[in-house]
Amino acid sequence: MSDMDEEPVTGAEQKAPAIMGHAWFASYLFSNVSSGLTSPLLPLFVVIYLHASVIDVGTISSIASAASVPALIFWGNLSDSIGKRKIFLLIGFFGSFLSLLLILIVNTLGMYALTLIIFQILAMASTPVATLLILESTVEKRWPNVMSNFNTVSYIGLVAGLAIGTLMLNLYGNRNSHFLPELYVISAFIYLLAGVSAWVLLPEPKKRIPRYSPKLSKTFSIRTVERVRYFPSNVIHTMSVKRVGKKLARRTKVYIFYTCFLMFGFQLFFIPFPVFMLNVLHASETEVFIMYLLNNVASAVAFRISGRTINRLGVSKSLSVALFSRVGILGFSTFLAVLLIGFQFSIPLAILSYTLMGFFWSFISISWVTSISKLAIPENRGKAIGYYNSFLGIGQIGSGVVSGYVAYSFGYGIEFLLASLAVLIGGIMLVRFQLKMNDMIVADDVKKTKLPSY
Predict the structure, then answer these.
(1) Most confident listed range (89-103, 147-161, 394-408)
(2) DSSP-assigned letters across all residues of 320-374
(3) Can you list the domains of the chain with their CATH numbers?
């Protein structure tokens, strides 16, 4: 597609899509409410409703992640191939509605896993086109403001969904396992509302911006939601099945590997921790929802200050503080799992640990994307971010398989200790690489520009 295809339309034609684009934000508000409502349900449903173990929580989490990664790539590439956006948003929202209704016939782990696979495949249709829809419906000079508003709407929806779930469980659901499928059904109808509002409010944009356009090289997808199974709304770049641009530089590949390894370590904590809360600390479903709610609120709050902090302290120092603060929290969680079981304040301390992990995520996520952007060849930034998005999912798939078996076989103390060691080792390797990063970029640039000898 040529640059001429990317030029905004003029006059009244330009103004109408921008206005309708803002109205369409309501549909994504609804979809994020639904996502927030369901995000803590997997461990609750597996442990309380299906009476299964932490192994099954880890396995099904991996299955859900494994379904979402290729689905995200497939839908993004298909959207680019046929040159349409809106239809994929509708597939994602209406498909989510229909797939979540299957929960009404789920009574085994296999049926639950199949339901999540179908849900993930269909829900991912809306993810890689959402941000492009907004950018293609808005003049370029307004992109920063419109994207900021879109992200704010997404945060509000996610937190609102978690708050609604917390309130409903507190009123009707604690120790009532039959209420958990009802939360999925409520979430399904909220997705239906999102689909209807998108259908009515959003026109197909008049212009097209290729996903790997130079105009998007500085438009990044920052993950504000760490659990990769629930992909954030603003993923633009995904791994492509086509050859796009030059090969990734070795330095970029190494950095992406480190982020993948660290995501593996983080998820060794996140995946089994809700089960630890339920089975060991005997927390209620409401307390688990509160834990997820505070984690996401802390991440959203930190997102507002992390950019300024990184600009002031630098990427390396900010990333070091965030990563090793997480190591300390993981170490405390190991102590909690071994020595503080039955302690009067063990549940509040566990919730605090989970909340602080969320706070430091924004610093880590922004630092990672900023560093990958610097490491990548300018025309390959989109491709690098696409591989980064996909490999974070691969990190979670691996941790889901490992975490359940370790927690079940050796206990949660060993599980959290393993997470601490993985993050410590990965953090040391990444920070050492980070400190040498600028020198690597300069050295590579010198090699490329060196004159031949005669």
Answers:
(1) 89-103
(2) HHHHHHHHHHHHHHHHHHHH-TT-TTHHHHHHHHHHHHHHHHHHHHHHHHHHHHH
(3) 21-203 (1.20.1250.20), 244-436 (1.20.1250.20)
